[in-house]
Specification:
Blueprint: H1 15-19, H2 21-36, H3 41-61, H4 65-80, H5 83-113, H6 117-128, H7 141-153, H8 155-170, H9 177-191
Helix pairs in contact: 2-3, 2-9, 3-5, 4-5, 4-9
């Protein structure tokens, strides 16, 4: 957890934040392509087998894949409504690769830092979440995140985004179903 490696801070963002974008988008695309059967069967079979590799890659790269995996489970449950079929596919495609990546990550931390790696991990999490001054005290975490988001993105961008979402709710046929699924699948973990 030193200043070298995948958690190196660049002038604008953490290196892991940059690297995780590709597997994040690839997993979203693969999930939507598989759910809507947008490709021929032989290509979908290849996507099905590549999904665990993408999940492992993403989970090992950044914690952002944890809420994405939860969103994929929710998406599959809402789409198929069959818990038995969804849970077995989710287990081998998503949960096992994610658990393997997290286990490898924690074993590496334990190997390098010893049994007292938890305070170092918590310190790095607080540094990455920009809470080095205990800013959560007195305010909720949502207010804290909203303040950063408002300061960085700006009120006009937030207002235009809300307006676009309202228009999509009023006229949902404007955007095709696979594109909507892709945007929703990636939007929820991105907010976290």
């Amino acid at each position: 957890l030193g200043a070298h490696g995948p958690l190196t801070f660049f002038p604008t963002m953490w290196y892991a934040d940059i690297v995780v974008l590709l597997p994040f988008v690839l997993v979203g695309l693969a999930e939507v392509i598989l759910a809507h059967a947008l490709l021929p069967e032989r290509h979908r079979r290849g996507l099905t087998w590549s999904l665990p590799v993408l999940i492992f890659w993403g989970m090992y790269t950044d914690w952002l894949f944890l809420p994405l995996c939860a969103m994929i489970l929710l998406y599959r449950l809402l789409r198929r409504r069959d818990l038995r079929a969804t849970s077995s596919a989710f287990l081998w495609q998503i949960a096992l690769p994610a658990a393997l990546a997290l286990t490898l990550f924690f074993l590496q931390l334990f190997w390098v830092l010893g049994p007292h790696f938890v305070p170092a991990l918590l310190e790095r999490f607080l540094l990455r979440s920009m809470d080095t001054t205990a800013a959560f005290h007195g305010h909720s975490m949502l207010w804290h995140v909203y303040g950063y988001f408002l300061a960085d993105v700006g009120g006009l961008t937030i207002a235009l985004t809300v307006l676009a979402l309202v228009l999509l709710c009023i006229r949902p046929q404007i955007v095709s179903s696979p594109l909507k699924d892709f945007l929703v699948l990636l939007f929820a973990p991105s907010v976290v």
